[in-house]
Each structure stands twice: as C-alpha cells, then as structure tokens.
Amino acid sequence: MSGNLEWNKIFGAGLATALVIIAVPQIAGAIYHQEAPEKMGYFVDAPEEVAGGAEEAELPPDWGTVLPTADLAAGEAAFARCQACHTIASGGADGIGPNLWGVLGGPVMHRAGFAYSDAMAAHKAEAPTWGYDEMDQFLTAPARYVPGTKMSFAGLRDTPTRINLIAYLRSQGSSLGIPAPDPSRQPGAAVPADGAAPAEGEASPATGADAATGAPVTGAAAQPTTEATPAAPPAATSEPPGN
After folding, report:
1. CA–CA separation, 143 and 140 (whole Å)
2. 89 in a structural domain
C-alpha cells in the first residue's frame, strides 16, 4: 500500500512540474505583454538602391585638366599597399602580380611570361591598351571591368585618389601624353552614351592624341608631372591591374 502512495507522489510531482512549466510562460506573457508602437522611435534615412543595382552615371575625368595638377606624392602613397603584389621599378621582377613599370599606355598583358588570367586575355581582345579611361575603370572596380580577373582587390571608388594614383603610374615609365582639356568632360556637361566618340577636334583621352589631326600632344603638357605637394596618405588604397 505504501508503495502505491510513493508512486502516486512521484506522478503528482511530475504532473505539477509539467503544469508549472506550461503555465509560467503564459502568465509571464500576460503580465509583460507589449504591443509594437505605431511609429518607430528612430528613422534611418538610407538611400534607395537604383533599380537593377545600376550606379548613377558620371562623367569620366578630364585628363587634360586633372593630370597636370595631380598629387604624385599622394599617388605614390596610394600605391604603397600594391607593393605586396607588384613591383614598379624599371627591370623589377614580377610578384603575385606583374611588374608595373610602363604599364600605363602600354599593352594589356604587357609582361611577357607572366601567367595572366583567361579573363584578362579575353579583355585584351576588346581593349588592347591601358589608356587613362581603361585604367580608371579597372581601378574603380576590377571584377566588374574584367569579370573573372584573378586580382581580388574590390576597387577604389574615390575619384581624386584614383587620379593621383594614375598620375603616379604615368610617372613610372609611361610615354602616354597628357591630352588637351576636353570641354565635354567638364562639370555640367551631359554624360555621353556608352561607346560615344569624343567630339570633333577634341582630344582623345585614351591615346593622348588630338582627335582632329591624330598627332600626339607634345611639349610641356606631354611631360610627366615631377613636382607635387606632399599629402597625407588617402583613406583608401588600390592595387593596379595586371592579373
């Protein structure tokens, strides 16, 4: 008889425990019930993404205007991080990426013997030369400009920093001249359609030649800038092309 009572006590204790476990959340929920406010206390004003993920179009730099005033010291500072993969001295050896001496104005895949990616080889068929615009687009977003490139750098979105970096690359063995200022690229000018040719008589930024005569720009404007005001290293850095 006493054995049955012991089992009854055990079952009763278990049942009571189960009831407590079930009842406590219900009681707590009734006591501490909260309703969502009709109006949020904080509003985060985040810009809406453009449909399809497209970025707002903007004019490419007017190289005839920005290069003569570019800061070579800041460009060299921007290149500092690139030295983990690239050398830029004349005759320098290839690293993870190719040596970049004379890359600006030179042919895509300019280093014979370097193992470039298939994506870069395919890109060369479409744009065989590293002109100013080509280099600018690549440094902005390498994987977008050359899909499949082995270079893992995400891109340098700060335009002034890219300009300084490109000016520095030009000072390292490039024979690419500075084109004449292009009014169609000045602030306030209409954004040209993709692939649109420069207006007649205007300079061709990618080649440094006058569009009307085909003659290269010469004289002081065609020489690399040699003086620059030292500047603090930019907030962002870039790795130039080559993979």
Report:
1. 9
2. yes
| Containing structural domain, residue 216 | 58-184+200-222
Of 123, 133, 169, which is closest to residue 58 (Cα–Cα)? 133
- For the stretch 130-173, pLDDT in tens is 999 999 999 999 999 999 998 888 889 999 999 999 999 999 99
Span 192-225, pLDDT tens digits: 555 554 444 444 444 444 433 344 444 434 444 4
How far does the chain reach from its first CA to its final CA, in angstroms? 88
- pTM of this prediction? 0.58
Can you say whether residue 198 is alpha, beta or left, with left for phi > 0 and alpha for psi between -120 and 50 degrees? beta
Report helix, strand or coil for 129. strand
For residue 115, the model assigns a pLDDT of: 94
CATH code, domain with 139? 1.10.760.10
Which tokens is 43 given? Answer: 């509003």
pLDDT averaged over the chain?
A: 75
Q: Which two tokens stand for residue 156?
A: 């340098």
User: Is residue 29 situated within a structural domain?
Assistant: no
Other CB atoms within a 10 A radius of the CB of residue 87 amount to: 17
CA distance 94 to 112: 10
Count structural domains, the chain.
1
The span from the CA of 124 to the CA of 142, in Å, is 14
Q: Which tokens is 88 given?
A: 């830029």
